[in-house]
Design brief:
- The structure is a single chain.
- The chain is an alpha+beta fold.
- Helix content is 54%, strand content 22%.
- The protein contains three helices and eight strands; from the N terminus they run H-E-E-E-E-H-H-E-E-E-E.
- A four-stranded antiparallel β-sheet has the order 1-8-6-3, with no helix packed on it. A four-stranded antiparallel β-sheet has the order 5-4-2-7, with no helix packed on it.
- The protein is rod-shaped.
């Protein structure tokens, strides 16, 4: 009797266990209505790489970051040698100053010639009036007329020199600005905020025009490419 009772209990326990397993398998094998319309697939996360390149070639003087460092947009990363450019800048600045001094000198000559011109103009007008009234000879009138014309031509020539030196000043200033831009472009800044992935140059090395100095990951521009089955 006891033996039959134990068999009955074991049978009930096994039956309950099998029922639970079947119930769980049914839920596992049946697709969930909550995922209806949602596709799944494999993919990988990628981040845009930004190359920090040199516009001009030269010797690397300083590299301020290491691989793995976080950088901010506009941060100075690398500096190239600018000694030769700075020497050219000094020459260009001297050229600007020289052109300015030459212009001042010619402007002083213009003032002198304007004073002389006014005097010659008065003499010419007076001689013309006297000649028309037959108070002086043609010879005297022609002398004053020639002196007036020579003075006028000399004044115009001096004014033309002033204009020429003004153009020379502008040209020299443009050269100065060009060299200053070239000096500034020897500094390589971070165009985006991110993390330094590769440091490709070391201090003292030469880098060619267009050569890469660093590679920065733009962490803001991060994306994932997902591959789905054709049916989905």
């Amino acid at each position: 009797m006891l033996k039959n009772h134990i068999k009955l209990i074991l049978y009930v326990v096994v039956t309950i266990f099998v029922g639970i397993v079947l119930f769980l398998l049914k839920d596992y094998m049946s697709p969930s209505n909550e995922l209806e319309g949602i596709a799944s697939g494999n993919g990988r996360i990628e981040t845009t790489q930004v190359n920090i390149t040199a516009k001009y070639g030269g010797r690397v003087m300083n590299v301020y970051v290491q691989e793995g460092d976080m950088v901010e947009k506009g941060q100075l990363l690398t500096k190239l040698d600018t000694k030769e450019l700075k020497a050219q800048l000094m020459v260009a600045l001297a050229g600007v100053e020289q052109a300015k001094q030459s212009k001042k000198y010619v402007e002083a000559i213009v003032l002198q010639k304007e004073s002389n011109f006014k005097q010659k103009e008065k003499n010419y007008l007076r001689s013309k009036s006297l000649f028309e009234s037959k108070s002086i000879s043609l010879f005297n009138f022609e002398q004053d007329e020639t002196a007036f014309q020579v003075s006028s031509a000399g004044l115009e020539a001096a004014k033309a020199q002033v204009t020429s030196y003004e153009a020379a000043i502008h040209a020299a200033q443009a050269q100065v600005e060009t060299i200053e831009v070239q000096i500034e472009e020897r500094n390589l800044y971070a165009p985006v905020s991110g993390r330094v992935l590769y440091r490709l140059v070391e201090e003292g090395e030469m880098i060619a025009s267009g050569g890469k100095a660093l590679v920065v990951l733009d962490l803001i521009d991060t994306y994932m490419t997902i591959f789905l089955p054709t049916s989905q």
